[in-house]
Amino acid sequence: MSTPRVVxxxxxxGGARFVRGLAAVLPASALTAVVNTGDDFxxxxxxxxxxxxxxxxxxxxxxxxxxxxxxxxxxxGALALLERYGEAAWFSIxxxxxxxxxxxTRGLKAGETLSQVTDRLRRALGAxxxxxxxxxxxxxxxxxxESDGVLGFQEWFVHRRSAPTVxxxxxxxxxxxxxGVLEALAQAELVLFGPSNPYVSLDPIVTRPGVRAALxxxxxxxxxxxxxxxxxxxxxxxxxxxxxxxxxxxxxxxxHYAPLLDGxxxxxxxxxxxxxxxxxxxxxxxxxxxxxxxxxxxxxxxxEELAR
Amino acid sequence: MSTPRVVxxxxxxGGARFVRGLAAVLPASALTAVVNTGDDFxxxxxxxxxxxxxxxxxxxxxxxxxxxxxxxxxxxGALALLERYGEAAWFSIxxxxxxxxxxxTRGLKAGETLSQVTDRLRRALGAxxxxxxxxxxxxxxxxxxESDGVLGFQEWFVHRRSAPTVxxxxxxxxxxxxxGVLEALAQAELVLFGPSNPYVSLDPIVTRPGVRAALxxxxxxxxxxxxxxxxxxxxxxxxxxxxxxxxxxxxxxxxHYAPLLDGxxxxxxxxxxxxxxxxxxxxxxxxxxxxxxxxxxxxxxxxEELAR
Lengths: 308, 308
Prior knowledge:
The structure is a homodimer of 308-residue chains. By secondary structure, chain A is an alpha/beta fold.
């Protein structure tokens, strides 16, 4: 297997594990992770970037594997006392996790860009793969709900437990991609969409100005976040019918990406997409590091076959 | 014993324990603690008010008794990770303690004054005695050193472990006292100076505009922070010779306060002050709550005798 230059687009836990799988089979220098910042928000006065942190913690081997967010060996002393002070307690931030938000917030206030501070923090944690936030400026994902008007992403996702029915997803701003995104795409020989939510994790990246045009000149493969009609994590399986009127399926995700897509990786049994795109059925559930590395190997081999 | 309206001036741990002693023998409604904010500073982007917090935690029964700062049952996960991120780690902030600084910083940014946010936080922690910061606006204590120029208080005290010889103490601003300070003094029948450092803990309070004049019309008693030539805690025993050329003694502290002083409370054996002020020799070491309450009772009885 040759080592192509790969850019991978990622949301939170599923994407993060896929990036770690790729990092196990590719040199870090061949890989760039471009990460969703649409669900970034301010909490307790701190700038929180959940997907960036999940990718960073996962690559550094510090993530809490079972929970899917935050750090392993975490305590929640600050959260408990903040609740006593009457602060919002619906978004759980652990004590060690606080350090990341404090350091990032301080860096941003001192004039660093989000991509600069991200690079500094991931290096401090020993994550080898470059992590580029999709944009330095805010690009808030907004959820138009049936019952509760427009909600910020975390308000809808965490505070309301994604209960309000989604009518549409839109973005509150349209900033350019962060420095490094278009540069990495220009050099990429392969772009991979991790198994993340297309509407709220990858669309924010894909819709940054210039990204679509950059994707036209490079093979794009996506890994389905839907397995047998179910999402491994998160509200996607409910969002697909709410947003498209169709049942949740790998096929619905593939059609969402269709104009960009050169190949689609699905769980075995999900290969009937109903339209014409090369499909790789394989084991896509990344239950551990070995499974993620095996998936990464499968996806890279599929890309090689398609390139022939 | 009658219950006079008492205002107590306090720095950190010694003052805080004295306030707790008073709170054990007086109704909370008869007591107001005015607390030094000269060593407040910004750390990790948060507004930290060490003496206010020590008084608040001590009154709420949450203070770490042996350490003299911060909370009992504390963890330091954030500190460790912040150090890994290259942030300054010389000032230890625990994880639960962080909650206080986060809530205060958020309140201040939302437009609350320091006295408003202090009142809200101490109520949330269940501290009954009103705690009034000496000023709402910054009044930074500056340490003029022999070897290292002018240092901020925490820079000198914590970062440099109060090693550089002190030539003078001054304040970087001259804000009015916070709302409530002059009002409490106007209603007070007795003002007590806790056993705090006169130069860096109580002078900042005493020198707020209007405070000296208010003290002229009410009996003022002070408790010596020097016992047998030694300070219970902190750099005072070294500062006295550095600032006055005289050995550390209760007498040096009394003379510092002299024009304001109607009586002075010292450890038994320290009663020879060398000038004419009523003295109460008693047990002043507040090794536990009972000792602090006994000292408070002694001081109030002394005030009653002086008033006869």
